[in-house]
Amino acid sequence: MRAEIIAVGTELLLGQIANTNAQFLSQKLAEIGVGVYFHTVVGDNTERLLQVIRLASGRSDLVIFTGGLGPTQDDLTKETLAGHVGIGLETNPEAMERIEKFFLQRGIVMTENNRKQALVLSGSHVFSNDFGMAPGMAIRHDSSTFVLLPGPPSELYPMVENYVMPYLNDLLPEKQVFHSHVLRFYGIGESALEEKLLDLIEKQDNPTIAPYAKEFEVTLRITARAATVEEGEALILPVEKEILSRVGQYMYGMGENSSLHDVLVSELKKRNETIACAESCTGGAIASLITSVPGSSQVFRGGVVCYTNEVKNQLLEVPDSILQTDGAVSEKTAQLLAEHVREKLGATYGISVTGVAGPDPSEGKPVGLVYVGIAAEGMPTVVKELRLAGRRHAIVGRAAKYALFYALQMQKER
Amino acid sequence: MRAEIIAVGTELLLGQIANTNAQFLSQKLAEIGVGVYFHTVVGDNTERLLQVIRLASGRSDLVIFTGGLGPTQDDLTKETLAGHVGIGLETNPEAMERIEKFFLQRGIVMTENNRKQALVLSGSHVFSNDFGMAPGMAIRHDSSTFVLLPGPPSELYPMVENYVMPYLNDLLPEKQVFHSHVLRFYGIGESALEEKLLDLIEKQDNPTIAPYAKEFEVTLRITARAATVEEGEALILPVEKEILSRVGQYMYGMGENSSLHDVLVSELKKRNETIACAESCTGGAIASLITSVPGSSQVFRGGVVCYTNEVKNQLLEVPDSILQTDGAVSEKTAQLLAEHVREKLGATYGISVTGVAGPDPSEGKPVGLVYVGIAAEGMPTVVKELRLAGRRHAIVGRAAKYALFYALQMQKER
């Protein structure tokens, strides 16, 4: 099946937003083995949109539109497609009801143009919009299937996950499932991971193996197509085993929504343990990551951002003599920060980071030199030395993730 | 002038990356008044790329390509365009020299395929690549101008800023400059700002007025086209004056790279003042924003992430009686946190945030209720109560920015 994606909206052509909807849809289509051949962005203009629709109908089996389903004069995707395929529009009662309810609940008078949002192409398959007003729809015409979806990501993403993907799966010639395992790695770069798995990646067919780098972590998605989930699982397992035999020491978790901080918080909850942190060069990044997880207050005691030597000394009792001889960026300081923040805040684990984030060296120490300390109740404290490359933002981001990764490692040993 | 942007790369069609290059180029073209009518993404495939080139040549005066200039077999933008326009490729000596030097400096043997990167269309205008190997180029053919640029943003952005924009400016029929003022606002939403300026925005022509929302802040760009910068400035000033008479109280700074934390750090430096923070619900977000500014160690003393009552009590001496009667999320707690963190860390200003980020209420207080405290040396402490909407991430982000905004306001009064 040949697919293409058409985003409608002048705001994209003005550069006010990036076309992340096309990226999201491309990922989803790749997962079910549908090839995407073109992305197009066109403005809110009937003539040019029609030109794009004609071209797409002639070359693609599946044409997915995003945007242009709203209430204003500018929103003209379904009206223009209706003209092209020669099918009229009709009000979808469920969508109308939802729109009326929306205004009723908020106590706002509904303006007449909102009714336009409940119009769908006659005879189309309607996708209900659980997070907004305009429904999505799909209609088959000649040899093409046209799918129309709302532009706001908060409405588009759940509609695609819940309704559009099952619909598209049914369209596929052979009934098959696409079953994935997502492995999460840290402490290894994307290119180093790829190099270690190059022969597997090059001969990949079923399952496919795709590495992605995201927010300083690396994710590997193994996807099998098969008649059933069980058959898919059977195809994945030997490949996964081979992968883990080569890079298993860097894997810390599985699944799409399992960043290092998610896994750490969930492991702490399971084990009824707590954590505290002392951050110098990461400046609050570790605390921010941990507290971004809902319910983290159960396990996170708190943290100290000890940006100056005085704070390291006064709040966390690192002796002045150590700060003078070893320096703030040193193994000894990292050790004491981790131990003292753990004790003072009464946590199971204390993690600390001290280093040089740049742009300039500090204490004669080079940009990128970072010490991470992990103290745990009843265990000797571990300090790791890192030499990180990149700019300030990258050094901070990666140092924070390393600290979480080491905390997870320590937890396994405890 | 009618322009369109063509991004070449299968990784875009697989959803591995978003087409942020098209967004960037669209913004740059909008700044000089060039209208962008289409974005297209096509894979690394000669036949489909040729199809896209033919279509673009027929409908646009300016066609900008990104990607496909690299050393591998997959990179075929210039080869395919050369075929279309009937012009050969030749080695650009400066580019070749740069490539050879690149390998020499790193002590790596250059593989033969790297020579391909120095090839340019014969007779084209060459843009040197200061941050990579493949040069960009522009060539006029029939009535169209084709511009070919590298895909990696780290190479593309500086090439566009330094070489491509001046080249395009020269192409414009009338010699004119585009001169902008960027105003930064906080404490007002994008739609509320737009509403207050609606009549100005609707009748805008020269200068244009464009509001953008970004990372919980709102930016307004006023852009004039004129023969000289002075004339542009003269067009902008009366409009800016009118805007500030309506929403001036929300403006905190000017310029593209002046987020609230940038302005706050730079003002603190100027005045030789320091700051410290006590964060409960923002969980380190304020410290992270401040320390993201290079050189912030001059003004940032440090912070305490007081996620639990024990930490509020032990490290920042909020009496248990207050935590029991008023609660952790209260005006009084915010006040004491701000005052005590300022005193303990010896800073000019102490800022505190305590609130309910959600997803669940806390102490019977609703999600979104947030108190921000600002203590300053020699001034009475101010506490602001906020009712923020949105999900956890948005509440944290906006509460952190409000705290910075109030700190800037307090600084003005001091």
Overview in brief:
Two copies of one chain form a homodimer. Chain A is built from 15 helices and 17 strands.
Describe the 3D structure.
Chains A, B: InterPro entries: CinA, CinA-like_C, CinA_C, CinA_KH, Competence-induced_CinA, MoaB/Mog-like_dom_sf, MoaB/Mog_dom. Chains A, B: It holds the Pfam family MoCF_biosynth. Chains A, B: Residues 4-170 form the MoaB/Mog domain. Chains A, B: This is Putative competence-damage inducible protein. Chains A, B: It comes from Brevibacillus porteri. The structure is a homodimer of 414-residue chains. With 414 residues, chain A is α/β, with parallel strands linked by helices. The first copy, chain A, has 3 domains: 2-171, Molybdenum Cofactor Biosythetic Enzyme, Chain A (3-Layer(aba) Sandwich); 177-254, Alpha-Beta Plaits, CATH 3.30.70.2860; 260-413, CinA-like (Maf protein, Alpha-Beta Complex). Chain A contains 15 helices and 17 strands. In chain A, the strands form 4 sheets. A 6-stranded mixed β-sheet of chain A has the order 2-1-3-8-7-6, sandwiched between helices. In chain A, helix 3 (46-59) crosses helix 4 (77-85). The model of chain A has no long low-confidence stretch (mean pLDDT 92). Chains A and B meet through helix 2, strand 2, helix 3, helix 11 and strand 14 of A and helix 2, strand 2, helix 3, helix 11 and strand 14 of B.
